[in-house]
Design brief:
Two copies of one chain form a homodimer. Chain A is 42% helix and 16% strand. Chain A is an alpha+beta fold. The radius of gyration of chain A is 20 Å and the shape is elongated. Chain A binds a DNA duplex through helix 3.
DNA sequence: CAAATATTTTAGATTTGTCTAAAAATTAAT
DNA sequence: ATTAATTTTTAGACAAATCTAAAATATTTG
């Protein structure tokens, strides 16, 4: 079975809205996809007919097992392409969303498995979101960029946004590696630099740029 | 200005049909795109309205300068993606056409320039077809795979289909490099192996696989 | 050069995904 | 528990890209 770009976009939108726990409504989907509730209703019927959605009119809807599977493959494609764009084609993590939004609809399964292999099976995309594996499994905990982590709490560095020698150089010098445990002492609004502290060491300061390429999980 | 996938497909089809010198007809396009002449006429009118085509009803048509430019950017995208698929994702040169057919419609210009840079500005795709540069310029002479070159004529090796160490190993052993001049002595149908001869040397035999990754131009 | 043949175009219909405006159902409020 | 407000759905229309069947134009041929 294969699906149109529009169908895939609806499935993905519903998937993301469902993640936030609360009940998803026709209007929610309309807002997210910048369309009208009437258009959403039309599409819900089509998605139901294709068994992607459980839907009773006037009584809400949610993804079927099939719909969930499809959503995960689309999310997988999106995040793998984002990873490729940032790590291989030197895009910034904030420039890649729209391009990945198009690339995620390329249909070849083999393509995406080869890409995954080429990228050495990354587990998180450049925004820190987990990448589902071939079977749709993914880590539950979202990584966050260090720059977005809350002040005062201990965090563990679990990924870096690039493998460039320049970055590794800097990290070596600052004594930061995957697994390092640190906390944010203070954030400076002037230049968005951040003062951090490693266990039993005096605090020191890192740039906004660096704070954007370090991903951490709460410790 | 941006164009639909369908418009781009028509422009590309007309471009390729024009390359063969002869006049392009409505029916030609219909055959190539697996559609009906009536549908082609409809689209011709739209393309004319967008200044991509010079068209007088009942009297034929051809790409405008703008149409030609557009065609070249699409061809550029197609061939760069094919190169990527073969050289980076380990696809065979005969598996990539359909995937590239989808990828060529991704809209970001920056993406394609970054890809070109990442691939180190390749000049020929895996089928030996030249890749237009950013300005639409490309080599005129098509390379052909050695396996398709005619017996008895001298040819110059001008590209190889992959950069794998396995291939370079084999080529080193057989004393073949870019620039080597050789001719086909005989083709064997049983295993599609090919007997070739380098200048002033005894002939020797190479496999079909190798003959598929060597690109030559008439010498 | 006119009749026969082939090609191209028009006319009108269909599908997909969207819209607006109005009707139906649900939810909230008095 | 009715009424009022909100949300969802239906009805009918539209644009894009396609189709079939018929009409218009070109081309070929005797």
């Amino acid at each position: 079975m294969s699906y149109t770009v529009s169908e895939e976009n609806y499935i993905k939108a519903i998937f993301h809205l469902q993640q936030h726990g609360n009940m998803v409504t026709t209007t929610d989907v309309a807002v997210r996809l910048q369309t009208r509730p009437a258009s959403v209703t039309d599409m819900l019927k089509k998605l139901k007919a294709k068994d992607l959605l459980l839907y009773e009119r006037y009584h809400g809807f949610k993804l079927s097992t099939l719909g969930n599977q499809l959503a995960l493959t689309i999310v997988r494609k999106h995040r793998l392409w984002e990873y490729f764009l940032v790590n291989n084609l030197r895009f910034g993590w904030n420039e890649v969303h729209d391009i990945a939004e198009e690339l995620e609809h390329i249909t070849s399964d083999l393509l995406i498995e080869r890409l995954d292999e080429y990228l050495l099976h990354p587990r998180f995309d450049p925004h820190g979101d987990p990448i589902p594996d071939v079977n749709g499994k993914m880590e539950k905990v979202k990584q966050v960029m260090l720059s977005e982590f809350e002040t005062g709490c201990w965090a563990k560095v679990c990924a870096v946004g690039s493998q460039s020698s320049e970055l590794l150089d800097l990290l070596g010098h600052k004594n930061i590696a995957i697994g390092t445990i640190l906390k944010i002492v203070q954030k400076f609004h002037f230049d968005h630099s951040i003062e951090i502290q490693l266990r039993d060491q005096p605090p020191f300061s890192i740039s906004q740029q660096l704070a954007h390429t370090l991903f951490v999980k709460p410790q």
